[in-house]
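Study this:
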Amino acid sequence: MGFSDRIGRLRDDAHAPLYVQLQQLVRTAIERKVLLQDDAIPPERELAVEYDVSRITVRKAIEGLAKEGLVVRRRGAGTFVAARVDKSFSKLSSFSEDMVARGRVPSSAWVSKSTGLVTPEESMSLGLSPGAPVYRFQRMRYADDVPMAVEYATIAGNCLPGVDAVGDSLYAALEAAGSRPVRALQRLRAMAFPAEQAKRLGVETGHAGLFIERRGFLADGDTVEFTQSYYRGDAYDVVAELNAS
């Protein structure tokens, strides 16, 4: 059975451009579970022959699907249906721990690390006095090389030995310093991405996203972490376990 037999064929009488039609066929097949997570998408040359279109048309369609987070390119392996990430709010865990638990390969790219004095908003969230020192970290978070989130974290100055103590993992550095949070309060809301975050995540301004704000606490109740994250809504699901008692 050919790929077009599974997901459908292009229509000669359709008004939409061919690449848009092909995108919609793949998108619909993913939504209807005809194509499942990690299913391979045939190479460009095979799709071009099967659909009788140019490779440029196929490439444009696949690039659009990749920007939506529906497919992911793996170097040397090909293009595959992306696996959505389920984030459970019942467990306090880091982004990297979440990705590894779901069989994804996490990675980060630091945008900035800095030392400064607490702002009024940070002071309220961290329970710090005006003028208290803090460390600020901004980074991009990836799963299988797909951009998933932009993260802005502020850490109380007495919880780390210095800004350079943080390598790949902020939580690993906090744990090494004896300051890893043991509980947290998180607030989530849907939002349309502002221009800055949309550009960093490779989506259009106004793209549907999730804004997650976290305050992490030590065992003695002191606040160690104030983090604001912008997650792609098309690739991230939030799961919560509810009990009657």
Q: What stands out?
A: The CA atoms of residues 88 and 239 lie 5 Å apart.
